[in-house]
Amino acid sequence: MFSGIVEEVGKIRSYDLQRMTVGATKVLSDLKVSESISVAGVCLTAVEVGDDYFVVETVPETVQRSNLGALKSGSGVNLERALVLGDRIGGHMVQGHVDGTGTVSSLVRDGNSVRVDIECPSSLLGYVVEKGFITVDGTSLTVTAVTDSAFGVAIIPFTLDHTTLNERSVGDAVNIEVDVTAKYVERLAQPYLDRWNAGSAQNG
């Protein structure tokens, strides 16, 4: 479990879609083999830890669901270690289970912030609400607007300076994780909605 508060931006040293080596500093202070780490919003397991790097492994499901397949040597990635029980949660509860990818459709300077619109599948937008939580490339953000095809976020200067969001351009794919609470609510409510709809159809 993570909070979406990025600790540092690491650099990809090598990646063959199965084994990824990431150069880092801060997250290595207590990272151990077998522990979880969020890489660009994807929860992965550290299989090797060195003095200035760590190694994780990915499987086809990971590559298909995320933008990791587009990474190459030199690419920056947002990094966050798993939460420790009792720590403050500055963002929101993030699983690191990416739901899919969105596409940056616009970036507009707005005072000291940058407003970013991200197009994503309707299957994900159903869980996105204005002023709700959203995770983009592992960064916890607040939704500022929702349309039929996209959602918007506003990036403050500190977040721009300390994440890979300042490297994004129109057309880039970003990892999206919606608030898991919405998915559980839908799952629990679905049987009741199905019965309601079936009864309405019979009475109609």
If you had to describe this structure to a student in words, what would you say it looks like?
With about 200 residues, this protein is α+β, with helices and mostly antiparallel strands. The protein folds into 2 domains: about 10-80, Elongation Factor Tu (Ef-tu), domain 3, CATH 2.40.30.20; about 105-185, Beta Barrel (Elongation Factor Tu (Ef-tu), domain 3), CATH 2.40.30. About 20% of the residues lie in helices and about 40% in strands. It contains 4 helices and 12 strands, in the order βββββαβββαβββαβα. It has helices spanning about 60-65, 120-125, 155-160, 180-204; strands at about 10-15, 20-25, 35-40, 40-50, 55, 75-80, 100-110, 115-120, 135, 140-145, 150-155, 175-180. It has a 6-stranded antiparallel β-barrel with strand order 1-2-5-4-3-6. Strands 7-8-11-10-9-12 form a 6-stranded antiparallel β-barrel. The radius of gyration is 18 Å and the shape is globular.
Jot down its keywords.
six-stranded antiparallel barrel, alpha+beta, globular, Elongation Factor Tu (Ef-tu), domain 3, 2 domains, 204 residues
Order of H and E elements: EEEEEHEEEHEEEHEH
Q: What's the CATH architecture name of the largest domain? A: Beta Barrel
Low-confidence stretches: none
Number of strands: 12
Distance between the termini: 46 Å
Structure class: alpha+beta
Strand order, largest beta sheet? 1-2-5-4-3-6
Give the number of domains.
2
Question: What number is the mean pLDDT?
Answer: 94
Classified by CATH, the class of the largest domain is: Mainly Beta
